[in-house]
Design goal:
The two termini are 39 Å apart. It is built from eleven helices and eleven strands. 49% of the residues lie in helices and 16% in strands. It folds into two domains: 1-48, no CATH class; 50-304, Rossmann fold (3-Layer(aba) Sandwich), CATH 3.40.50. The protein is α/β, with parallel strands linked by helices. α4 (69-91) packs antiparallel against α6 (132-160), α4 packs parallel to α11 and α5 runs antiparallel to α6. The longest helix is centred in the middle third of the chain and has 29 residues, at 132-160. Strands 3-2-1-5-10-11 form a six-stranded mixed β-sheet, with helices on both faces.
């Protein structure tokens, strides 16, 4: 079997490069590809392209925020824009160098198996064995499936008697490193959330740090004056670090909202909470963006990636 694979590899790459001017770089890549077929380690030719190998993970906040019709509409548009940016990146790579993936997560896992099946469909991996049709299918999947997913999530919440919240804190503690970080890739986690964080089974407090932030808990902080930043630093307010050493992860948050009539600084406070949290966990690069029209967010996604 290995001999057959070897012959197929040689034949494939001969065809790939026969119509192009061979370069020393191409020859070295072919040699590395052949060697990699007999090794389970991350191939050198892939590792050398690490920053160009996208490993994009999406974490959806399926809490009561999705009750608003416009949230489903905006999130679906954001995900569609993301898929277009991802596919455009893939199209500009040589076939031999394809090692890119995009996947979807939520925490906790919904009980409805149809939701999980959609998540499986939205997990797409491109390698040198991928077909061109898969690239176009990715755009179609991300244009149609998210809307269906949100409708199912609402029905799931009704059956469960309400939304338990989205456990983003526990996702970072137990899953982020394992699910979203790979040594062969540039690892990007995109979170669609309103910025508040709460789950009924992950409510913790350590001095003035918490694992949650809700409109009510934010109001209780009394940070509704211009010196809110000084007060926040003085009291060491913020999220409890869920983990550390996430230095190989980049995070983009989309959808932050300042829906809080009692505090004119709520958006800035929410942003400060997340900034401090990412710094504490060692996230090397992050950006926090408010909810905006999809066309504007598409540029934010493109610039970040």
């Amino acid at each position: 079997m290995k001999q057959i694979q070897f012959i197929l590899i040689i034949s494939t790459f001969s065809i790939i490069f026969c119509c192009k001017n061979d370069t020393k770089e191409d020859a070295e890549i072919i040699e590395d590809v052949i060697k990699s077929e007999f090794s389970s380690d991350c191939p050198k030719y892939i590792l050398d392209q690490k920053e160009n190998n996208l490993n994009i993970s999406i974490l959806l906040d399926l809490s009561d925020r999705i009750e608003e019709a416009k949230i489903k509409e905006k999130d679906s548009a954001y995900l569609s824009s993301l898929s277009k940016v991802f596919v455009d990146h893939v199209k500009h790579k040589k076939l031999i160098l394809l090692e890119d993936r995009i996947q979807l997560f939520f925490n906790p896992e919904p009980s409805d198996t149809d939701i999980n099946n959609i998540a499986k469909e939205l997990k797409v991996v491109f390698t040198k064995q991928s077909y061109k049709t898969q690239i176009e299918e990715t755009v179609s999947l991300y244009a149609l499936k998210p809307s269906q997913l949100y409708d199912l999530a609402k029905k799931d919440a009704i059956k469960a008697g309400g939304y338990p919240g989205s456990d983003i804190w526990s996702f970072f503690k137990y899953n982020a490193a394992d699910y979203c970080i790979d040594t062969c890739h540039r690892n990007i986690l995109i979170i669609l959330t309103d910025g508040y964080m709460y789950h009924n089974k992950a409510v913790m407090k350590e001095k003035n740090r918490t694992s949650y932030l809700t409109p009510n808990s934010l109001n209780a902080l009394k940070l509704n004056k211009g010196n809110w930043k000084d007060e926040m630093e003085k009291k060491d307010l913020g999220f409890i670090p869920a983990t550390t050493h996430l230095n190989d992860l980049e995070v983009l948050i989309i959808g932050i909202t300042s829906r809080n009539d009692e505090n004119p600084y709520s958006y800035e406070i929410i942003e400060a909470y997340w900034n401090k949290w990412f710094d504490d966990m060692g996230v090397k690069k992050y950006k926090i963006k408010n909810a905006d029209i999809p066309s504007s967010i598409e540029k934010v996604i493109s610039d970040f990636i």
